[in-house]
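Example (one chain per record):
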Amino acid sequence: MTDDPAPSKAAAAPAGPRAATIPPSQVQFDTSNLKSSYCNVCNGSSTREEVVINFGVNESWDMGREKLLVMLQHRVVMSPYAAKRLRDMMNRLIDEHETKYGKLDG
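Predicted structure:
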């Protein structure tokens, strides 16, 4: 088991509106089966019960094609509560990045 030196606050947040919050110092991450992959495309959809985000790779650099082929590689399904925590975490990460490296376009 490998400990992540900087546990994410988002991971320790409750599963729903009434669940107890676990302090980040009490969360341990097991990264022994962690796999990393590169994705440059994502899209999503949602229902009342879940949010779905698909991640993939666009390898079509030829812009003259009629259709763009995106190879979807990962699908993450989560509750709306987890999706909201993910949004908040991403906003924090992007703010930190822009503070260090400058404003991102788009």
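Caption: Residues 1-12 have pLDDT under 50 and may be disordered.
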